[in-house]
Write a structure and sequence with these properties.
Length: 345
């Protein structure tokens, strides 16, 4: 793990002391996590063993989770939504459906929506990581395709302790302009680092300036080589997004307000892997779909593609994408799963 600190270069400081403090923090974090999660001590006992305050131990344990030092696995057979999983699997012809627990708010409010959203990203990311762990355990030479987004970011944090040196990770889309943990490049590199595997990316932007530029970029030899690896993936994980002002694409300024209006006019209800689709799961006729540099629906449909859906706001987009037949599997938070089933009632 790497701890990065910002230094005030206007004030004198001892770099050696700062590095020693960072290393000490990492050591304490690891010891606290081991005593609490493996040793079975509660926070008070862990604090006494380490000679720290309980508040300090609580912070160390939270940092250990946030930095991926501790990962969590959950047996999906024990979370109580098996009937919902089966209903979704049958309805959309999936090989499998995994639902995380539902929080069960009957009357959504802005506060509960925010809570549901944060919970959903973490829950689906954790369940997806467990699915990936099982796949890597069964496929030594696995090729893992990855999309982007907050759910994939959470997934990367749950791979601690998983070694897969002969596996390969490949981004299924070009890079975003923003440097963030859910950027496709960062997702691939984080997963490769966590597992000791190789990481490959599409060395192009996410959206080309023009359709002509897109054709030129996609024809490059390095891009074609990356696409060849992607088309041979043994499993791919892509997230489904809603078409709204609060969507990640809009918040990252990857699409404009005018783009949003035009996409809606064309019938778009959501997006995945750079493709905007309508209520029937068909890519809409819009220039953005022809300027995106990513693995398209036809290639994804031929592959073992798993859709990740986190948050009730994505219910309509999730139903539409599942109707496309692209995904073979679905990992979804329980509240959204219940809404998907309720829509059919």
């Amino acid at each position: 793990m790497t701890n990065v600190k910002m230094y005030d270069f206007c004030q004198p400081h001892n770099r050696g002391d700062s590095m020693a403090e960072a290393q000490e923090d990492q050591t304490l974090m690891a010891r606290a996590a081991w005593l609490y999660h493996v040793g079975g001590l509660n926070q008070e006992a862990t604090a006494q063993r380490l000679g720290l305050t309980r508040a300090r131990v609580n912070k160390l344990l939270a940092d250990a989770r946030d930095q991926g030092l501790v990962s969590i696995t959950i047996n999906p057979a024990n979370i109580g939504l098996l009937q919902v999983e089966d209903a979704i699997r049958v309805r959309f012809g999936l090989d499998f459906c995994i639902c995380t627990p539902a929080l069960g708010f009957d009357t959504p409010t802005p506060e509960t929506e925010k809570l549901l959203s944060g919970f959903a990203f973490r829950a689906v990311g954790t369940a997806a990581a467990a699915h990936l762990r099982a796949h890597l355990a069964q496929n030594e030479h696995a090729v893992i395709g990855t999309g982007w987004g907050r759910t994939l970011e959470q997934m990367t944090l749950q791979l601690a302790g998983m070694a897969a040196p002969k596996a390969r990770f490949i981004s299924l889309m070009g890079s975003l302009t923003a440097n963030s943990a859910y950027n496709p490049f960062e997702v691939v590199h984080a997963m490769a680092r966590a597992t000791g595997a190789e990481g490959f990316v599409l060395p192009v932007p996410f959206i080309a300036d023009s359709i002509e530029d897109c054709h030129v970029l996609m024809a490059q030899r390095t891009v074609q080589k990356a696409l060849q690896i992607a088309r041979g993936m043994t499993v791919g994980y892509i997230s489904v997004g809603e078409l709204s002002e609060t969507s990640l694409l809009r918040r990252q300024d990857m699409i404009t307000a005018r783009d949003m209006a035009e996409l809606r006019e064309a019938g778009a209800v959501g997006d995945t892997n750079g493709q905007f689709f309508d209520a029937a799961g068909r890519p809409v006729d819009h220039p953005l779909n022809r300027r995106t540099l990513a693995l398209g629906f036809d290639d994804l449909r031929r592959a073992n593609t798993v859709a990740l859906v986190a948050g009730p706001s994505k219910t309509a987009a999730a139903r539409a994408f599942l109707a496309s037949g692209v995904a073979r599997g679905l990992i979804v938070d329980g509240d959204t799963a219940l809404q998907i089933v309720a829509t059919d009632a």
